[in-house]
Structures are given as C-alpha cells and as structure tokens.
C-alpha cells in the first residue's frame, strides 16, 4: 500500500511535489479506509482532476517512472517474484523550462507499507545514472527506522541486516542497487520490497492499444467474478472464449436460452474498455495491489466509473487493501457522495509554467475555513473556486478569447 509519494524535477514538475494517501481526520467515508491498529489509515482511492496540460498524467508518470526503473532490470533478467501486469516504462525526464533544472537530477521518494513493515525508498537519477539511493525499514508501530542500504555517488553503505562479506557493493551506475540485490541475492527484506514494487499495476488508457491488451484467466472462479461484475454493470455477457486458431476473443451472449458469439472487435468501445480493465482491477482487489490508471473514465459511462470506485471503497470486496489512483475529466463523479475531500486532487500550472498539485482538503474558503463536505464539488470546481481553469471559466462567464 502506498502511504506517500513525492518527487522533484520531473517533466512539468519543477519543485518538490507531495502526493499523500494517508487519511486525514475527516468524518466522511470513515468506514472505507484501509485501517491498521499500528499505523495511520490509508485511502483506498485517489483521483486527480485538472485541465489538459496541467500535469495530471505527469503525476502518474512520475510514479510509473520510479516503479519501472526498479522493476525493469529484474524483468529483463526474468527474476521476478510475482506476476507483472503491463508496466509502463517511463524515462526520468527533468523539467526543461529553466536553465538549472535540466542539469539537475530527478528525485523520487516513496513510503509504502507491506503486511508487517513500512519502507522508505529514495532514488535520484541524472540521465540514466543513479546519483543516490537509500532504503530504510520500520516495523508497524515502531518509531525508529533501520537502514537497509545507502548509496551516494558510487559509494554504498550496508545496514546491519544485510551487511555481509558476500554482498557485492560494486554495481553498474545505471542500475538501482535495490534491483541489483533482488537479481543476485536471496535476502528476505529485499525480496519483500521487490515483490511490492512488482505488485504495482500501471495502465494508461490515453494509449488506445491498452484497450486491446486483455488479460484472460483460465481460473473458473476469476472468470465467474469478471462476468458477475460485468453483469452488475448491465453488460449482459454469459461467457467469453479465445480462439487460438484465428487469435480472436469472442464474447458470448445468451438470448432466449440460445448462445451467440460476437467478436470482441465488434463490441462497443465502452464494453471493450470494461472487458480490458476489469480483469486487471479484479486482480488488484484479490491480491491487494495498488493500481495506477491514466484516464480511467475514458469511454466509460459515469455510473460504470462510480461502480469501479465503489469496489475499492467496499471492505467486503477490497479485503486486502488494494488502492486505485487515477486521473479523470468526468465532473459527474466529482461529488461528496463518491469521494472524501482528501481523496480529490487537482493538478494545474502555476505562474512559472510548472505543475502543482493540491487536495480538496487543503483548499480554504474566503473565511479561511475548509470546503464543507456538503458542498457541490463539481459546481464549485467549474466556477473556478478550486483553482481557475481558464477555458472553463471563459465559457462560464461568456468572455471572448483574446
């Protein structure tokens, strides 16, 4: 589970940016939180809104960049510890709109939680070279973190838990030391961390090819769950079949007791999106994985998007602490009946043309009070109260383009 992610000098983001999934002290939807008796509650869902070009996608790409940088070497050498689901490989591109940032490293820092521990992993990259890196571990309920390793300009220091003569501290400058250890050694704490990184699912539905990447399962129970979810969303499907000979997926529908098959390519765009996305979402829910999706709402009816969100907020369905992080343009779900205030984030460009993010919980009204949880979030956002969107504001006020 992701607790907090911060980064600096990545694409449209110049300054340090913090994306927090730790729940604040809010009354709404308290029963949906991922709870722990020894640590802070975490959010099951976070959504990012904002205008085109504001930095929504780049926020998710920063997280995808860190994940893929750690996982890619392990995948290439086929030494993974869990199933990898469609990772998007993203390069660390710095902020290019000033003279200093483009010469400085890109920095990532993530706090994440496993069943028994909370980890802090830091990675700094310049071009393809790792500048610095560190990993610490803290048991849930403990106060003092323990160093696992620390790397700075080629020098590596090992913590007491892995400090053995047999462990090599000479590593290729382009490879994270975490990946190097995962590939070459069987160290329980490294295996625990690497398995978590491999568990993160990254999807980008801004890419049209993503809807044709369908994960089919031969497990009868998983097939039944997928069909049940589709039927719950009024997608009347009784089964599916993949034909090896013509390499085609067929969707089965029952009409008056008789089965008919329709090629997947002939389905509506919304149905194709659901059939592609649901198996991935189901795996996340069953295994407690974080899932990061750009433009989840694309081609989906708002009620279907709400249904997917509700799965992660339902503790009977989401029993293992899966998290959904996604971007959206759909204003019909920007409501107090769908989200907590700390689950809603906005991304926008500031006066220096650098992206910033902030949560609805952080916004203050004119009287310096927080936005009330009974407010019409969608209406107030369109009115520019949460940060003006020039295009929408211009339409609403009837102004003319200059």
Describe this structure in words.
With 402 residues, the protein is an alpha+beta fold. It folds into two domains: 2-207 and 288-397, Rossmann fold, CATH 3.40.50; 215-275, no CATH class. Helix content is 25%, strand content 25%. The protein has eight helices and 16 strands. The chain has helices at residues 56-76, 177-184, 188-199, 220-232, 269-287, 302-313, 377-382, 390-397; strands at 2-8, 17-20, 45-49, 106-113, 117-126, 129-139, 146-152, 155-158, 201-204, 239-243, 248-255, 258-263, 290-294, 323-327, 344-349, 355-359. The strands form three sheets. It has a seven-stranded antiparallel beta sheet, with helices on one face. Helix 6 (302-313) links the parallel strand 13 (290-294) and strand 14. It is globular and about 70 Å long.
